[in-house]
Structure formats: structure tokens, C-alpha cells
């Protein structure tokens, strides 16, 4: 069953964003993930959104196990280190609906 990574991020330092993106994208591909939504500012139709500098990203992996492997990987660890102080992230792993 597919698993999804839902990311709510606030960019604090746009000049350092590209280094994180490059490292994250390479690690996601290495673990078989793919972007469904990448760095998009959401259109708020109900409720409130914290700020206009927040963006959403949604990734898909084949299984929850694979998503966990990616998140715990050395490769993504490098991306996490690169984003320190540059991006404030809230990240969820969510299992997809079985049919």
C-alpha cells in the first residue's frame, strides 16, 4: 500500500533552499519516491493558513516501510542538515487507503 509524506515548510533563507532541494530530490529518487506536489503555496478556501511563506510538498512511496527507510537514510540526513536554519519543516508520514 502506498505511503505519503506530507510536508508543510516555511522558507526562512531562500538562498540556502536550493542546496536542500538538490539533496532531498536525489534521496527521494534513490528510495523510489516521487513528487505529487512540490513546494506549492496552497490556496486557502476554508480556515486560516499560518503565513504566505509556507509551502506544501507531498511525496509518494510504494510502502510505509520505504518512506521510513528514506526518512532515516544517510542521504536524506544530509538534506536535513542542509536545511537547518534555512527551512522550518513539519513532516508527516501517512499510509494510503487500502482498496
From TrEMBL:
This is Uncharacterized conserved protein, DUF1330 family. It comes from the Bacteria. It comes from Streptoalloteichus hindustanus. Residues 3-96 form the DUF1330 domain. InterPro entries: Dimeric_a/b-barrel, DUF1330. Pfam families: DUF1330. PANTHER family: BLR0684 PROTEIN (PTHR41521:SF4), PTHR41521.
